[in-house]
Write a structure and sequence with these properties.
The chain starts with a helix and ends in a 5-residue tail after the last helix. It has one domain. Helix content is about 90%, strand content about 0%. The chain is mostly helical. It is built from three helices and no strands.
Length: about 120
């Protein structure tokens, strides 16, 4: 088998192309990872802000309901007890429906984000 200079040059070119391809693929993976991580973090930030604002709104709503119930039930303590009971019922419902309300949507979101190809 002869060692042809043209053949050696072809192998060298192939080696350089493969090396460049691997480098470009790693850079693409890095860029894609940063993009998906940015989407994930921004979504988490927005959801956190919405939850915090909703909790504050519910707090004031239930506080005003407690004062509205005072003339009906006869005492402020009893109306706050009713509001506390409503909170407990909401917590139990949220716990019982955690799979449908929290886990399944989160799994769908993360699987769509990290496992699907970006169509551009």
């Amino acid at each position: 088998m002869t060692n042809n200079p043209e053949q050696t040059e072809n192998f060298q070119q192939l080696y350089d192309d493969v090396k460049k391809y691997i480098f470009l693929q790693t850079e693409y993976i890095k860029v894609e990872f940063v993009e998906k991580l940015t989407i994930l973090l921004s979504t988490l930030l927005i959801i956190t802000l919405i939850i915090v604002l909703a909790v504050i709104a519910l707090f004031y709503l239930f506080f005003s309901l407690a004062y509205a119930f005072e003339p009906i039930v006869g005492s402020l303590g009893a109306s706050f007890g009713i509001i506390s009971g409503i909170y407990v019922v909401l917590i139990v419902v949220l716990y019982l429906l955690r799979k449908q309300l929290i886990i399944t949507p989160m799994v769908k979101f993360l699987s769509n984000l990290f496992l699907s190809k970006i169509n551009k």
